[in-house]
Write the structure tokens for this entry.
Amino acid sequence: MTASTLPFSEEHNIFRASARRFFEEECAPEQAAWEAAGMPSRGIWKRAGELGFLCPRLPETYGGIGADFLFSVILLEEQARSGAVAPMMSLQSDVVAPYILHYGTEEQKRHYLPRMASGECIGAIGMTEPSGGSDLQAIRTTARRDGDDYVINGQKTFISNGITADMVVLAAKTDASARGKGVSLFLVDADTKGFVRGRNLKKLGQKACDTAELFFDDMRVPARALLGGAEGRGFGQLMDRLVEERLMTAVAASAMIDRAIDMTITYTKDRKAFGSRVIDFQNSRFKLADAKTEATVLRVFLDRCIRDFMDGTLDASASAALKYWATEQQCAIIDTCVQLHGGYGYIVDYPIARMWLDGRIAKIYGGANEIMKDIIGRTL
Ligand SMILES: Cc1cc2nc3c(=O)[nH]c(=O)nc-3n(C[C@H](O)[C@H](O)[C@H](O)COP(=O)(O)OP(=O)(O)OC[C@H]3O[C@@H](n4cnc5c(N)ncnc54)[C@H](O)[C@@H]3O)c2cc1C
């Protein structure tokens, strides 16, 4: 693994060892079964909760252990290292729960967070719609106030955990005539009348994770479902939280790069062609030297961004630059590693082929990389 400069303590190292065991022994072996089912089992969420691996950063009052951000980094690194794409625990812990922790009312926090930490309540975030995901200010799902309720109509697509989710942080327009200022977030229970799940979408990779369409047909939710109790704050909340989501995407990218390089070094040391080891060809060594150098450069940038995030100074532009850079490197390096595996690199029984398929989405979700460049460009 590329050496990290982060201040991991003994406590972090012990946590890492048990996270590694969990992903290697309880998640990685189940991927094929979960792929066949199109989603992970509910049981694994409960198990992750029992072990303290869900939402560890939540304060104890809300079911967490009050851990620091490095615990989240460790969990994501170990999951990526194990090759287990499901369950999407970071989505629960680092994306969905923080919306409620940061913006929710006390009632909302007490209602959802302890059950999210125990794995009883699986969360999802519903932003993207069939008409577009990059332009979030243009969403068409509406939430019309009606007495003490809101009536929500519209649809979402590509929603991770969409089939398994018990609750969705849902972006809807409370003022359809406005752009960003009209967006509000709602905490919506999946058993609400009018909440309809569509297809579990067939993807190129990450097949053990469910990614679904959601439809809302005159779905009536109480006014207390409005996140934080005030309308029109949703777009700002999304933009704030996406900083952390993009940082986590880069954490996963860096860990996957390390895994791809390690497995390719092993493979090219073992594989022979023209009477020598594949790693003995100068081309192979140069490609791997490039990859190792790029991984190290990324690690330095990533560590700086993690420190800035922990200090509260990571801004949207730096987080966008990191996400864009990390995921471009991830895809390019994994592609190189596929090439160095020859034909076996294209066979999905080989982990490197899966990494190529699973990783491609990283340049698209959490904000496409073109949008990341736009965010950086606006600061120039
Ligand atoms: C597996 C998977 C999981 C996902 N999980 C979730 C989830 O949990 N929740 C959720 O809400 N969404 C999720 N998404 C959706 C994802 O975030 C969107 O696909 C992404 O934001 C892009 O939106 P889009 O697909 O509508 O593409 P579009 O917005 O239609 O973009 C199409 C192309 O145009 C480019 N483009 C758009 N605008 C500009 C511009 N201004 N300048 C330059 N280029 C531009 C884009 O970069 C892209 O290349 C997921 C998607 C996938 C595939």
Remarks:
- The two ends are 34 Å apart (CA to CA).
- The first strand starts at residue 123 and ends at 126.
